[in-house]
Design brief:
three-stranded antiparallel sheet, Rossmann fold
């Protein structure tokens, strides 16, 4: 039986919006009401729940927190691609990595702070591994986090449709991806060595950061556009505290730190140095 339910009301939209904001910092503007109506409608059918009000109570009453994660998975927007906003990776190769090597430091530590389905951290791993092949003393680790368990599962598996990697140079595809055969035809998988250079885990950026001056580089791109100014300020302060002196913060090309109080120096397009 296909469930039918009354549309999401303004008052319930506000309640769901507050719930999402309190737990993730994501601010759902009023124009997102129809999007939320459609996405939560799918979840209602999966749970066999007949109304948005009943679903809201279901989320609030779930002491395990699992349904809250499902709610967040439903409202999260996860558009990404390999080598997205490529100027950042070019700046890494031309400036950041040579500077890191020249300083005599070892063991570059990178955080992909909103890794989505994995394309960003795998791109970072490709860039860093290519550099390592030229500088044998260079080493790196990548930590990749996201609030959505749904996209993290994709990222950990490292399996993508052919069209997701079609624009990549053939030498990169050959070195870092395995082409699927038989039932896996039409897909590629990131090779084990590259997968093992990244640690994936769930993390909520609104929570406490356990790191103090630990990272050399943080990528948090196209995330702050979903936050209000106060949340953006809080997040930038947290990033500053867990970056080493001289560390780099990369944000999305559609984002800016202009209206935020910070001590970073802008060094390239949406790239900042502590």
């Amino acid at each position: 039986m296909v469930l039918s339910y009354a549309p999401l009301t303004d008052s319930l939209f506000k309640k769901f919006s507050s719930l999402v904001f309190d737990n993730t910092g994501i601010f759902l503007k009023p124009e997102k009401k129809e999007l939320l109506n459609a996405r939560l409608g799918k979840r209602l059918r999966q749970c066999n729940i007949a109304s948005f009000e009943a679903y809201y109570d279901y989320v609030r009453d779930d002491t395990s927190g699992e349904e809250l994660i499902n709610l967040i998975n439903s409202v999260s927007t996860n558009f990404t691609s390999f080598f997205r906003e490529n100027s950042h990776f070019e700046y890494l190769t031309s400036t950041v990595l040579p500077g890191f090597s020249a300083s005599g430091a070892s063991g570059l530590k990178v955080w992909s702070a909103a890794c989505s389905s994995g394309e960003e951290p795998y791109t970072l791993a490709i860039v860093l591994n290519n550099y390592k092949q030229k500088k044998r003393s260079f080493s790196f680790v990548i930590q990749a986090t996201d609030i959505s368990t749904k996209v993290l599962a994709i990222a950990k598996a490292g399996v993508y449709a052919d069209e997701r990697v079609r624009s990549m140079p053939k030498e990169i595809l050959k070195q870092y991806f395995q082409k699927g055969k038989g039932k896996s035809a039409g897909f590629v998988r990131v090779k084990r060595g590259l997968r093992e250079s990244i640690s994936f885990k769930r993390f909520n950026l609104m929570g406490d950061f356990p790191w103090q001056e630990e990272f050399d580089i943080i990528f948090c791109r196209n995330v702050m556009i979903y936050f209000n100014r106060e949340t953006q300020q809080e997040l930038v302060n947290k990033f500053s505290r867990c970056l080493k002196p001289g560390g780099y913060l990369f944000i999305g090309h559609s984002e800016s730190l202009t209206s935020i109080d910070h001590s970073f120096k802008q060094v390239s397009t949406t790239a900042y140095k502590k």
